């Protein structure tokens, strides 16, 4: 087993922390984008349902 100096260990821990941070940031960005898309779909669906309801109300009178 190779013995690492304190500086090398510190650098390795920092790199590992940065990787975790970047992956977390990436996951949050993807989740945010997916959330926006789902929101758009839901908004469209709700709007369509309301339009159908309004058209149905107009036909009744």
β-strand number: 0
Q: First CA to last CA: what distance?
A: 86 Å
Instruction: Indicate the proportion of strand residues.
Output: under 5%
* CA gyration radius, whole angstroms: 26 Å
DSSP helix fraction? over 70%
| Uncertain residue segments | none
Order of helices and strands: H
Task: Specify the overall morphology.
Answer: rod-shaped
Q: Helical segment tally?
A: 1
Quote the average pLDDT. Answer: 88
**Biggest beta sheet summary:** none
Structural class: mainly alpha
Structure characterization notes:
- The protein is an all-alpha fold and 61 residues long.
- The protein contains one helix and no strands.
- The protein has one helix at residues 6-60.
- The termini are far apart.
- The model has no long low-confidence stretch (mean pLDDT 88).
Give a quick set of tags describing it.
61 residues; mainly alpha; 0% strand
Task: Give a concise summary.
The chain contains 1 helix and no strands.
Write the layout of secondary structure elements.
Layout: H1 6-60
